[in-house]
Design goal:
This protein has four helices and no strands. By secondary structure, the chain is mainly alpha-helical.
Length: about 120
């Protein structure tokens, strides 16, 4: 059951929502693109949290594949969005939020480098 839920979430978020975001993003202009970028980023955060819950139910073996699929779909959608941005403010916001996210992940890795890890 949980595998089916995970697969359904992957397909719906990356197979439906991200392409839909890209087509709507191309049709919008200005401040509306800003709002869609925020929704796009929140959708990714939602998926990451759902992945954590599924990893607890299914075990860690499914996590690398789900993360790899998520990163691929996210980066692909980011490239499509960046190619159709009409205002520099939206471009700066998209790049800035992506840079902040990467900085956050690097900080978390640095912070947890000395924590003991369980062996199984």
């Amino acid at each position: 059951l949980w595998s089916a839920v995970g697969l359904l979430l992957l397909i719906s978020i990356f197979g439906v929502f991200f392409p839909l975001f890209n087509s709507v993003f191309n049709a919008l202009d200005g401040i509306y693109q800003d709002f869609l970028v925020i929704i796009f980023l929140l959708t990714r955060l939602l998926f990451e949290n759902i992945n954590k819950l599924l990893a607890k139910k299914l075990g860690p073996d499914m996590f690398p594949l789900a993360v790899a699929m998520a990163v691929y779909a996210y980066e692909f959608s980011m490239c499509v969005m960046m190619g159709s941005i009409k205002h520099t403010v939206v471009l700066v916001m998209l790049i800035g939020v992506d840079a902040l996210e990467n900085t956050f992940h690097l900080w978390r890795l640095w912070r947890t480098r000395d924590e003991p890890h369980s062996e199984g």
